[in-house]
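Journal club prep — side note

Before the paper discussion, L.F. wants everyone to see what a predicted structure for a comparable chain looks like in token form. Sequence:
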Amino acid sequence: MISNYHRPIILTCLLPWVSSRANELGQEYDYGFQIYDEGSERIRVEANYFRGKIDLSDESTFKFQLLNDAITGSSPTGALPGGNQPFTSDLEDVRTGILAALGHSLGDQRLELELSKSEESDYFSSGISINYEKDYNLGNTTLAFGFNYLDDVVKVPFLDDEKKDSYDIFAGVTQLLGKNTVVSADLTLGYAEGYLNDPYKVVQRNEDFVIAPGISVPIVNIYRENRPDSRTRQVLHQETKHYFESLKGTLKAAFRLSNDDYGIFSQTAEVEWRQEVNDKLLISPFYRFYNQNSADFFVKSLNQLNIDTPAYEPNGSSPNYSADYRLSSLRSTSIGLKINYKVNENLSVSGAYEHYAMEGVGTDSAPSQAYPTANTFSITAQIKF
């Protein structure tokens, strides 16, 4: 656990180890604060983070990040609106986390080892990742490979703790096409196994409660969702950046395709324009579009399935079902603006605003009330020396 109490201890232990050498080399630190707000008493997240990068030598770098998120509000449960079962449930939690990475360069090769740990009241996660890069063609071409592993424990209300393991491997290439154009592409293969349910999502079903032989009354019961106990996914990401000298601006265009054995196929397109107003001010408007079809096991209610009484402790075996709106057929858009101001050679500040809207698409969508609209505000200060 990385609590607020432990943070100063961690920094006290780390900084003396690197301070004597780092004073001769480069250091970067930044603090950021972000608010994500869905409004109407829905989810609100206030996030604080502190990041640092310290050059230990000409070849080695140490990076760290400390994170604290406070989450409040309510989220859809999966039950249908307007009924006897609650459509939303209240939640309140705090997430604390730490990340540390050690990188080393040797000629045209770079290797980085990263360790992470985060904790919430009901979720614990530990991770390790290894990333490797190598330059070719006089530095105009870069190949990258990586591996990531997450070891998670989920505290399920009224049940035993459950385990979840996630693995990702990726390979990518970045190519400089000219002095003003860079293109990159990468492929990620992911696999997760264990408890993949959301412990707070349910599915409702209309049933008859038998009072006496031949006498019953209609009721609505809710049951825990039951997703498969494994998930395989493939993600392809491509990005192009081009600098227009006459406009002193850079166009970034990115496209992402994702497919998994849940049956979800998604597409993401993003464009961003980075305009240099002067030597100190950079303004970047951006737009993002996302679309996905529903998971094979998405249902609005268990009335759609002819099954016996669902298990009290779902284990991922068939039949699978979930009414989570995030697994439905949906699309979302984001539009926003980033501003970066360089105060001097050592200090810069930045801010961003993003408006996010999600809606269901077609018959395999959740009730319209489930989909959020959110506003995100963030501010960051960075110091270098």
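L.F.'s comment for the group: Confidence is low (pLDDT under 50) at residues 1-22. Keep this in mind when we get to the figures.
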